[in-house]
């Protein structure tokens, strides 16, 4: 059985006078340790789907299973990283990183030590007692990653976590997150508008069409790219070839819309 299975997912948003179909008949599976990106035009339901995978939203139709159970029963094993870091400004970086452990009642000397060691591994040694306002945007996102990883989730859901950063910082963080997830053998689902980011970080790219949101095509990233860092992937011919193929599909979807 696959680690994640989504079967015939549909979701509707209701108002007093109308019904908006965000997702229709979406089915896919993701293996443990796989990195999958969701891309597509605005309105294709990517973020809605991520919310369903997280258990924050129940689908109107169909079902999702994560490791054989519904997401709402697996919340302690799911980490969510967003575009904004949402660090608490009145708490130190150490307090922010440990807050998930505290809420999950997992905070003990061993888990605290592990979380703070991870903070050092990602280049934030010495900032534990500082406050978020004292850090750059890239450093804040690293702290948010440390907070997410502290609870040792099996699944990471990434909702455009690099889009608010300058390009150089974004590329560095892509490499960092890629290396961390591979080293810890985590499963990840990334929502992004950046096609290059999707290809360079992923094992597979799921392309969605809009109105209503539905799975249009699935693209396998060549093995020769998967072993490289996201930065190095971008210089490969296979990357350029796949970029052009998916770009043409995106243009076709825009024309249909």
Task: Name the features.
globular; Rossmann fold; 257 residues; alpha/beta; three-stranded antiparallel beta sheet; 9 helices
Structural class: alpha/beta
**Major sheet: size, sense and barrel closure?**
6 strands, mixed
Global geometry:
globular
Number of helices: 9
Q: How many separate domains make up the residues?
A: 1
Low-confidence stretches: none
Give the CATH topology. Rossmann fold
Compute the number of strand runs.
Answer: 9
Q: Regarding CATH, which class?
A: Alpha Beta
Strand content: 15-25%
GO molecular function, one term: ATP binding
Protein name: ABC transporter ATP-binding protein
Keywords: ATP-binding, Nucleotide-binding, Transport
Pfam family, one: ABC_tran
What does this structure look like?
The protein has 257 residues and is α/β, with parallel strands linked by helices. The protein has one domain (4-256): 3-Layer(aba) Sandwich (Rossmann fold), CATH 3.40.50.300. The chain has 9 helices and 9 strands. The strands form 2 sheets. It has a 6-stranded mixed beta sheet with strand order 5-6-7-3-8-9, sandwiched between helices. Strands 2-1-4 form a 3-stranded antiparallel beta sheet. α2 (93-103) runs parallel beside α4, α3 runs antiparallel to α4 (137-150) and α4 (137-150) packs parallel to α5. The chain is globular and about 55 Å long. It starts with a strand and ends with a helix. The model has no long low-confidence stretch (mean pLDDT 91). This is ABC transporter ATP-binding protein.
